[in-house]
Amino acid sequence: MSISDAIYRPFETLIRPLDLPYRPLPAKGPVAVLLHFISMFRGVLIALALASMAIEAINLTIIWGLSVIVDGVTQKGAPAFLHSEWPLLAFLGLLIFPGMPIASFLLNTFNSHTLGVGMPAAIQWQGHKAVERQDLAFFHDLFAGQVASRLSQVVSSVQQQIIIAFQTGPRFLLQMIGSVILLMSLSWQLALPVIVWIALNVALAIRMAPTFAERSRRTAKQRSLVAGAITDLYTNMQMIKQFAAEDSEAGAIRRVIQKSVQTQHSEQRIYRTSELIVVALNMVLWLAMLSIGFSGLVKGFLTVGEFVGAVYILQRLSSHTFTFLQMGQQIFQAIGTIKDAMPVLTTPPTITDRPDAKSLMVSRGEIRFENVDFAYKSGKPVIDRLSLTVRPGEKVGLVGLSGAGKTTLANLLLRFYDIRDGAILIDGQDIREVTQASLRRAIGVIAQDVALLHRSVGDNIRYGRPEATKDEIEAVAKMASADGFIADLADGEGRRGYDAFVGDRGIKLSGGQRQRVAIARVLLKDAPILVLDEATSALDSESEAAIQERLNFVMEGKTVIAIAHRLSTIARMDRIVVLDHGRIVEEGRPDELVEQDGLFARLWKRQTGGFIPEDIDELFSASPAT
Ligand SMILES: Nc1ncnc2c1ncn2[C@@H]1O[C@H](COP(=O)(O)OP(=O)(O)OP(=O)(O)O)[C@@H](O)[C@H]1O
């Protein structure tokens, strides 16, 4: 172990942020959130408070010692004083050196390594675990940037609060009490104005507290709105540029920044005004102390030593009033910030696993929707007493006008939302009674808008099964016809092939390439049930044919629910279910439905330009599902 390790490692391992078990945050208010974290780091914080107070005690002892020296030397003369009081001098000398520098170094290291790195990382990790547990609906309702910004604001606020509560605060308190006691021991006449001064400062803080808290909360909210708006803008930059809307969007950002500036000004005004009052109180205190001090010297109720000690204490006290003010400001800013972020961190997720939830066991892959009723928050029914059974291995195509509820139905199967009434069963197991993870592991999804993470293309495929080997990844990429373009991939950092990064959300790949990566990913996952949400925008017919062929491959032997838009997909389904306003209005083989001349036939005619082939059966049988 190196010397550096020996010195710093103990401080670095006092808090192991990622080893702490997740504990849900209380929803009772900012103070409860603070207490939650304080109890998490209690051992470390008690040590911190003791260490800070020890340093302050050393400081006060040194001041007391100095005043004793000044008085002793004045009264007895230096040689006599040195002779009789050398143990005191030696003790003070040791406190000044090496006592104070060593203690300060240890406290600073504790501050920087344990409290400055370990503690915020632990708060960040706990906050992330709280956010990660939220339902999908939560992420749909909020700007991602706003959530991230609230979380990072909370991290620094909680850290700051804890340091104030256990370091600056106790030290300051001890300094106040110690100074008053020391002053009283020197002269009660000098202590009196200090007591009045402290009382006035405390009264001022209590009087201003609600205003501080409210203005700080508004500032925190506005700050997270700015972060949210900016993230939303950057995420949608392509669309913004397509509409050449940079200027109007800049206008919108300008407005939120403007609002944020206003709230910050209003917050700062109140702080600066209270600062002025505190400065005025300080001046009055100095005047009072100096008047009492000089008159004490003249009238003889004070010695020079007492006067010097008092002036020194006063100087320290008044220079610390700004620490006191800053502390107040930080406390209220932190409370405001935590209050603003509470909904993000403490809203309990509505979709949770039951305590006795088991893993879903899929033996056949039958899906049953029984009298399912569902509405989003707005309350308008989106799925209306819908019953549907998908047999094991059956391929069902969901068709319907836009807004009919097709995507919603697929999302209900994945339990992204809980239904209001009825039940959804997979092989007879209610999806609310199994763990969400096992449910989602059993369902492969290829969504309209293929989401890829900004990682290597290989890692994006591996998402289907994290433990997959390189060979398995290459095999599925080949099956998805993705191997060809992957071999040619290169990114700006010089990574090639499977190691090349795909850009945020896969932006560096074409739509068809993204689809192929998604197919490879689902092939690797090899889940018994497949949900396919087909993109409405048509790929060029050659790509479509290629993708369709790959999809057939993925669908083999699986139970499939496909939100089908393309005729080529519809034609391959065993059964079509036509949805309208969350209800099944038609159902049957595609060819039967065309002949029924209902909603499906209308949609079909629209897509084929009114062309209905004479021999429909032949058209459908031309491309069997499996
Ligand atoms: N997250 C949401 N919150 C609130 N309402 C929603 C949400 N998602 C969808 N809706 C509403 O639910 C209804 C059904 O939407 P859904 O996306 O299921 O339709 P769809 O049939 O898949 O449409 P499309 O073919 O256009 O994708 C619509 O009225 C839509 O506005």
TrEMBL record:
List residues of the ABC transmembrane type-1 domain: 46-333
Name the principal localization, coarsely classed. Answer: membrane
* Keywords tagged on the record: ATP-binding, Membrane, Nucleotide-binding, Transmembrane, Transmembrane helix, Transport
Q: Does the keyword Cell membrane apply?
A: no
Location within or outside the cell = Cell membrane
| InterPro entries, sorted | AAA+_ATPase (IPR003593), ABC1_TM_dom (IPR011527), ABC1_TM_sf (IPR036640), ABC_transporter-like_ATP-bd (IPR003439), ABC_transporter-like_CS (IPR017871), P-loop_NTPase (IPR027417), Type_1_exporter (IPR039421)
Q: Its GO CC terms?
A: plasma membrane
User: Which PANTHER family does its entry note?
Assistant: ATP-BINDING CASSETTE SUB-FAMILY B MEMBER 10, MITOCHONDRIAL, ATP-DEPENDENT PERMEASE MDL1, MITOCHONDRIAL
UniProt name for this protein: ABC transporter ATP-binding protein
Q: What is the lineage of its organism?
A: Bacteria, Pseudomonadati, Pseudomonadota, Alphaproteobacteria, Hyphomicrobiales
